[in-house]
Structure formats: structure tokens, C-alpha cells
Amino acid sequence: MVRLADLDADMREFLAGWAVPEIAGEPWTPAVPAAERRVALVSSAGLKVRTDRGFATDSADYRVIPADKVDEVIMDHVSTSYDRTGFHQDINIAFPLRRLRELAEEGAIASVADFHYSFMGATDPRAMEPAARRLAGIMKLDAVNTVVLAPV
Amino acid sequence: MSISLVREHTERLRPPRALWVSFPLGRPFGVPDNAVFQRKVLAAALAVLEEPDGPVIVDFPEDAPAETAGDDMEGWVCPVSFPKPPPADDTTGLREAVLAEIGQLAPWYDMGLERRGRTAVGLSGLAIEAAARFLDAWLAGETRASPIDGVGVIDALRWSAEDLKAFYLEAATAQPGTARQGELLDWLWLETAAGEMLKALRPVLLADKDPGIHDIGDFMLVPEAYHA
Description:
By secondary structure, chain A is of the alpha/beta class. Chain A has helices at residues 9-17, 85-89, 97-105, 129-141; strands at 38-43, 47-49, 62-66, 73-75, 111-112, 115-119, 146-150. The longest helix of chain A is centred in the C-terminal third of the chain and has 13 residues, at 129-141.
């Protein structure tokens, strides 16, 4: 459980002392009704399609994960500070594309985006801003109006 | 909207909409092979979009269900039994032990691949035996060259190690059912020759003058809980 009080002292100290970047403003966009949501996943787990380029240690860019290539996704994150055993058993624990499809089939959302994305989260998030802004424009081309950001 | 794993960080970042979950780092949607629970988390995440104003953090009300390894509740058992690994300074013995373990695990790895339809092995592009041999050769001081065309030695080291870990974990969990996180990590790092080899490799990398290689040993190879 990631309640800081439940962690061992070293990890608690590391996480408690982590320099959370200051982000100006409080962005807010009204959500579209559930029946109109076209949803994309954005992970920070360093996920990529097997044949795609790897992430460098300080990568601030992202990789594209076509929805029809989820079975070819592998993890290229540099850190050992989070558990990967769950991912090795079931990708949906970190990248629940199959669960998203089920929600679409049930009518809980309108549709699942054709493309999803992953950053490699060990990089300073401020360095990711240019790529993130480009990605927002790209997602609009896929008619995405709802994004679920999934950390590890 | 975003999933929040560390509530204190989310409180300081103030994203528009967040669902805090109490799950371990690496498990934002709860538990492997539990579609019902994962769907519940995802639905709760999307429900945060109904909040009228933000920034808002909604707390997911459930902890991850206890992981069980089958209906008999007897706990996970590795499908193969390994002898005690050789000591770290026996690099030849470690290499032979790792290759023997790979041979024993291979049918289970194949079973897991068939059942899941996917594998996380493949960062390096090397056959798993070749990845293990490369890491062992580095440990023994026999090489400083990347075995992967067009890939530098830093990526080759990291990717080979990740492939080895992924191979072992996927083989160990090939059978249906969920192994507890702690059980799997203890098995890999305390009971396998691969774990011993990687732990022995860590100080070698830490001592390297190349900062990129040093960093692999520092925080990319062995989880802190298993440092010597």
C-alpha cells in the first residue's frame, strides 16, 4: 500500500522528500458526458512496442502504442523502485487496455482510442512538457476527449 | 484524469482530477489477473470526471484484494526446484547454474507465453542464454563490449538484466493464479542463481568509472530491499 506511513523508512524518506515540481495555475476542462468519451491511456511505465526505440535514462519523450499491438508491449523503465511482478503476470495491472475495451462494450464509454502512449517516468516531468503538449494535439487527431494517466 | 499512487505528491501537484489508490507502486490498477477489480478501479477513475470542480482527489475506498495462489490458499510455489546457488565469487559456477535454471524454466516460460499471448522479454533482442552469458562475462571481467549490434554497452547491460528478470518472473508465474509480490521477489533474489549473479554484478557496476554503468548498478539493477 502506498500510504507513506506504511512504507519502510528509506522509501518513505525518499518519497516524502521528492521535489514535486511547482506547476502554475489550476487547469480545468469540463468533462464530456460518459456516453461521448473516447478514451486514451497514457502510462509512465516506459512501455513500448517491442520493435520501437528504447528509452534513454533521461528520456522526456513518449512512445506510441497502437491499440492492436498491446500484446507486443514491453517495459523499458530504468527504476527498480516499483514492483514489476504484477506487470509480468498481467499487463492490465499497469496498462488496462483490455479493461477499457470491456467498458466500451458495456457502453460505459463511447470508444477506445486507436493509439495510446507511454512516457518513461523517471525523468523530471518538467522536461516532458514539450512532448506532452505535442501529444495533446496528436490525440485530438484521434478524436480523443478523455485521458487516463497511469503512473507506476 | 490521473491515478495517484502517492497522495502527498498529488496534493502538491494539484492535477485537475485524480483517483488516489492505496496499491503498491507498479500496480496502479490493483491486482494481476483480477479483471473485476481492475475494471472497478478504472470505472472509479472515469467517475472522477463527474466531479463538478477541481483540483479534486477522490480516494478509491478499497485496498487491493489479498493475492492468493489458487483455491487451496497454500501460497505460491515455484514450478521448479533449484539447488542453492553457488557463492558470488564462483563466477563459473554461477554461469553454469544460471544456464541450468534457464533450461529448467524454459518450458514454463513457454507455457506462460502461450497462456498470456505476450511476453515482456525482448528489450535486448538477445536469446535469454546469450543475455545471461553477457552479464556473466561482464561480472567475470571478460568483456566490456556490447553483444548487440548498434546498441551501446550501457543499454546492453540494462536490457539484458531486465530480460533475465522478466524471463524468470514470467516462467515462475506461468500457471494460472496469482503469486504474492513478496514471494516472487524473494524467490528471484534469494533463491536463484540469476538473482545471485545480478547481486554480484551490482558492486562491479558501481565501481565502474563510466557514470552510465555506475548508475545501472546504483538504481537500475537490484531492488534496494535486496542490496547486500
